[in-house]
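Progress narrative, work stream C.
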Amino acid sequence: MVRKGLSFEEKRSRMLEWFYDKEDVFSLKNVEKYCSKEKGITSMSIKDVLQSLVDDNMVKMEKIGTSNYYWAFLSEGASVRQNRQLDLEASLKSLAEEKEALDAKIEEAQSTRQESEERTRILAELEEEEKKQEEFDIELQQFKDSDPELLEKKESDTKIAKEAANRWTDNVFAIKSWCQRKFNIDPNTMDKQFGIPTDFDSIE
């Protein structure tokens, strides 16, 4: 199966993770060169991804002379995300209250069955507020997806899974070796009988 390219949010998450890992300051040229290579982000999209992180205050930028320099440290990123998340949650609460008030007005208007300009305006406002709430929900989820604690947990879980897989791989090799010595079974024949792929090996 052909793997689809990275989504824009996946690119943002990978680039932010790259900055956190490096804990250093980089020129745009170096971000394009190293981040693209190490995180699998196409060089053509590096600038757009980087600018979106700067716009969201998740990556810092400073102009020195004629060049721009970028950095993002894990401790700063957690604070920025926490503040942004609090802002989004406050906005969502405010939108929910406005929606509740609009719902009440609509219910009142519907009870009289009067198609007035006021009712039309309220319906339009409600639709707009619902769109805003949906956008805030999406952005809030994106911040949660790029939370450094969650990224660290994913990395830890991946490491544990990898170690477990390699232990099972070692066990399979040990059993194959024992069977070959005990029963003089050809390795290729044994692989075929038990459905063991020819490229079966430990995970690097």
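Work stream C, second folded protein:
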Amino acid sequence: MKLLLWRVVMVTLLLSRVSSVTRGAGYCVTYGDCGGVPCVNNTPAKPISSYQTLSSLREFCPHLKEESGFCCDAEQVTIMEKALSKADNLLKCTPGRDNFRTLICDMVCGPNQANYLEITESKQYGDRIQATHIKYFISTEYSDAVWRSTRKQSKLLCGKIFSECSKQDLFKFIGDNRWTKLKTDYVIENTPSRPGIKHSSPSQLACPFSSSCQC
């Protein structure tokens, strides 16, 4: 009985962290790995001391600045690096590859993560909580640049073989397919639709203007 009561208290405390989120620059909504998906953790972005991990971040996420800290740890960077390396096999055009990397880097490691991510589903993982479903708020301009630079590279990124890849196809498939553990709803909007949300700037993309992102 005492053990059951303790578990109820722990779940209540952990879920309360999910419902009350500190937003703003320098804050995360996830941090650390919980069984292949990020842990719920509304913490300030943290520094990474491992030289190897920083080298990986400089290669895959050069737009993220070391002095700002990160919303990921070394284990998450290793997982992300493997996933992005697989995507690189489908993206031979440099702007398309770099823009796709930026999209994922911002989601996993971006130091302002709390500005544009929202956890919608989670579950207990030991004494921590897994984030299992999130919303990722991005601007129309940002999404256009990513889509235009990747759409002719590989239809497999859209889950298609023979038909054209629309922007909706791309973001729906990369957010929810048989290989993704963390399900992601990409909310594409001209301006933030709710208080506290602030989109990542498209200026950090390889070609920030969508018309120049043809590959």
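The radius of gyration is 17 Å. No further action is required on this item.
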